[in-house]
Amino acid sequence: QVQLVESGGGSVQAGGSLRLSCAASGRLFVNPYMAWFRQAPGERREFLAGILWSGGTTTIADSVKGRFTISRDNAKNQLYLQMNSLKPEDTAVYYCAAKIPPFRHEYDYWGQGTQVTVSS
User: Measured between alpha carbons, how far is 27 from 24 in angstroms, rounded to an integer?
Assistant: First the structure.
Protein backbone atom coordinates (compact mmCIF):
# COMPACT_ATOMS: atom_id res chain seq x y z
CA GLN A 1 0.00 0.00 0.00
CA VAL A 2 0.92 3.64 -0.41
CA GLN A 3 -0.07 6.44 1.94
CA LEU A 4 -0.35 10.00 0.64
CA VAL A 5 -0.73 13.29 2.51
CA GLU A 6 -1.04 16.60 0.65
CA SER A 7 -0.09 20.02 1.95
CA GLY A 8 0.57 23.51 0.62
CA GLY A 9 -2.90 24.58 -0.41
CA GLY A 10 -4.31 27.96 0.45
CA SER A 11 -5.66 31.21 -0.92
CA VAL A 12 -3.81 33.26 -3.51
CA GLN A 13 -4.60 36.08 -5.90
CA ALA A 14 -4.76 35.54 -9.63
CA GLY A 15 -1.31 35.51 -11.16
CA GLY A 16 0.26 34.11 -8.02
CA SER A 17 1.99 30.80 -7.38
CA LEU A 18 1.67 27.88 -5.00
CA ARG A 19 3.63 24.69 -4.54
CA LEU A 20 1.72 21.65 -3.37
CA SER A 21 3.52 18.82 -1.63
CA CYS A 22 2.53 15.20 -1.22
CA ALA A 23 4.28 13.14 1.42
CA ALA A 24 4.38 9.54 0.25
CA SER A 25 5.07 6.41 2.28
CA GLY A 26 4.63 2.66 1.96
CA ARG A 27 5.50 0.48 -1.03
CA LEU A 28 7.34 3.12 -3.01
CA PHE A 29 10.00 0.57 -3.96
CA VAL A 30 7.54 -0.96 -6.46
CA ASN A 31 7.75 2.27 -8.48
CA PRO A 32 4.18 3.52 -8.54
CA TYR A 33 2.92 6.04 -11.04
CA MET A 34 2.22 9.27 -9.17
CA ALA A 35 -0.19 11.97 -10.25
CA TRP A 36 -2.00 15.15 -9.30
CA PHE A 37 -5.72 15.61 -9.85
CA ARG A 38 -8.16 18.35 -8.94
CA GLN A 39 -11.89 18.58 -8.49
CA ALA A 40 -13.93 21.77 -8.46
CA PRO A 41 -17.47 21.84 -7.02
CA GLY A 42 -19.91 20.20 -9.42
CA GLU A 43 -17.11 19.13 -11.74
CA ARG A 44 -15.48 15.82 -12.57
CA ARG A 45 -12.08 15.00 -11.14
CA GLU A 46 -9.45 16.20 -13.59
CA PHE A 47 -6.00 14.73 -14.23
CA LEU A 48 -3.31 17.41 -14.12
CA ALA A 49 0.11 15.78 -14.21
CA GLY A 50 1.87 12.47 -13.69
CA ILE A 51 5.32 10.97 -13.24
CA LEU A 52 6.86 7.61 -12.38
CA TRP A 53 8.20 7.51 -8.83
CA SER A 54 11.60 6.54 -10.27
CA GLY A 55 11.51 9.61 -12.51
CA GLY A 56 11.56 10.05 -16.25
CA THR A 57 9.06 11.60 -18.60
CA THR A 58 6.28 13.67 -17.10
CA THR A 59 2.78 14.04 -18.45
CA ILE A 60 0.99 17.39 -18.16
CA ALA A 61 -2.63 18.06 -19.07
CA ASP A 62 -3.15 20.59 -21.84
CA SER A 63 -5.32 22.68 -19.52
CA VAL A 64 -2.34 23.51 -17.28
CA LYS A 65 0.63 23.00 -19.61
CA GLY A 66 3.11 25.81 -19.35
CA ARG A 67 1.85 26.82 -15.88
CA PHE A 68 2.07 23.66 -13.75
CA THR A 69 5.09 21.41 -13.22
CA ILE A 70 5.26 18.02 -11.47
CA SER A 71 8.40 16.78 -9.76
CA ARG A 72 9.45 14.39 -7.03
CA ASP A 73 12.22 14.09 -4.49
CA ASN A 74 12.85 10.43 -3.76
CA ALA A 75 15.21 11.19 -0.91
CA LYS A 76 12.46 13.10 0.89
CA ASN A 77 9.61 10.87 -0.35
CA GLN A 78 7.85 13.94 -1.67
CA LEU A 79 5.83 14.66 -4.80
CA TYR A 80 5.34 18.29 -5.80
CA LEU A 81 3.09 20.36 -8.02
CA GLN A 82 4.41 23.81 -8.80
CA MET A 83 1.58 26.05 -9.94
CA ASN A 84 2.32 29.41 -11.54
CA SER A 85 0.15 32.11 -13.13
CA LEU A 86 -2.84 30.86 -11.20
CA LYS A 87 -6.32 31.72 -12.40
CA PRO A 88 -9.66 31.79 -10.57
CA GLU A 89 -10.68 28.71 -12.57
CA ASP A 90 -7.85 26.80 -10.88
CA THR A 91 -9.87 26.92 -7.65
CA ALA A 92 -10.46 23.31 -6.59
CA VAL A 93 -9.49 20.59 -4.16
CA TYR A 94 -6.17 19.12 -5.29
CA TYR A 95 -5.37 15.44 -4.78
CA CYS A 96 -2.24 13.36 -4.92
CA ALA A 97 -2.74 9.81 -6.26
CA ALA A 98 -0.77 6.67 -7.00
CA LYS A 99 -1.30 3.45 -8.90
CA ILE A 100 0.50 0.13 -8.67
CA PRO A 101 1.58 -1.24 -11.09
CA PRO A 102 2.11 1.96 -13.04
CA PHE A 103 0.32 0.73 -16.18
CA ARG A 104 -3.00 0.26 -14.34
CA HIS A 105 -5.89 2.39 -15.54
CA GLU A 106 -7.31 3.07 -12.09
CA TYR A 107 -5.55 4.92 -9.30
CA ASP A 108 -5.52 2.84 -6.12
CA TYR A 109 -4.35 5.35 -3.56
CA TRP A 110 -5.48 8.89 -2.83
CA GLY A 111 -4.63 11.61 -0.38
CA GLN A 112 -7.24 13.56 1.53
CA GLY A 113 -6.94 16.61 -0.71
CA THR A 114 -5.88 20.21 -0.17
CA GLN A 115 -7.97 23.26 -1.06
CA VAL A 116 -6.64 25.87 -3.47
CA THR A 117 -8.60 29.09 -3.85
CA VAL A 118 -7.62 31.70 -6.43
CA SER A 119 -9.28 35.10 -6.21
CA SER A 120 -9.52 37.62 -9.01
Answer: 9
pLDDT tops 90 at residue 97: yes
Distance CA 50, CA 34 (A): 6
- Which 3-state string (H, E, C) describes the chain? CEEEEEECCEEEECCCCEEEEEEEEECHHHCCEEEEEEECCCCCCEEEEEEECCCCCCEECCCCCCCEEEEEECCCCEEEEEECCCCHHHCEEEEEEEECCCCCCCCCEECCCEEEEEEC
- Percent of the chain beyond pLDDT 70? 100
pLDDT of 94 strictly over 90? yes
Q: Is 15 left (phi over 0), alpha (psi -120 to 50) or beta?
A: left
- pLDDT tens across 36-60, in order? 999 999 999 999 999 999 888 899 9
